[in-house]
Amino acid sequence: MEAVQEAAQREASRPVCAGCGARFTDERWEAAEETDWGVPVDTHPQLCQTCKHVAVAAHDAAQQEQPEPLPDWAQQKRFMRYTRRPRCTECRAAFTDER
User: Fold this and answer.
1) Long-range contacts (CB closer than 8 Å, 24 or more residues apart) made by 11-20
2) 67 or 13: whose pLDDT is higher?
3) pTM, whole model, 2 decimals?
4) Which residues contact 48 (CB under 8 A, 6 or more apart)?
5) Whole-angstrom distance, CA of residue 13 vs CA of residue 6
6) Percentage of residues in the chain having pLDDT higher than 90
7) Contact between 12 and 5 (Cβ < 8 Å)
8) Is the dihedral of CA 50, 51, 57, 61 positive or negative?
9) Backbone angles phi, psi at 78, to 5 degrees
10) In the beta sheet, which residues pair with residue 40?
11) I want to staple 24 with a disulfide (CB 3.0 to 4.6 A). Which of 29, 84, 90, 91 is the partner?
């Protein structure tokens, strides 16, 4: 009788997925609770395994769509001083008024 009550309490305290509302499996529950010095090891401890895979895939797709940021030297305001002037095909220098 006591084992049944403990099993019922354990089932009642089992976490629920924030995405779909499904109860965590034992394996997922243990993986979500693992900590290393108080820091969760899992990237999405509030999601079940299926919802976690969907969230990670969506995050990866969003990262691939964003272009890489320009390097610091290219972000300077004076990088291309004469943007409308034609450029040399060999050295990429802008033509001056003399050329």
Assistant:
1) 15/46, 17/46, 17/47, 17/48, 17/51, 18/46, 18/47, 18/51, 19/47, 19/48, 19/51, 19/54, 19/55, 20/48, 20/50, 20/51
2) 13
3) 0.53
4) 17, 19, 20, 22, 24, 25, 28
5) 11
6) 1
7) no
8) positive
9) -95, 20
10) 35
11) 29
**CA–CA separation, 38 and 3 (whole Å):** 31
Rounded distance, CA 94 to CA 87, Å?
A: 4
Q: Give the span between the Cα atoms of 18 and 52, in whole angstroms.
A: 10
Q: What is the arithmetic mean of pLDDT over 24-31?
A: 83
Non-local (6+) Cβ contacts of 32 within 8 A are 15, 24, 40, 42, 45, 46
In three-state secondary structure terms, 59 is helix
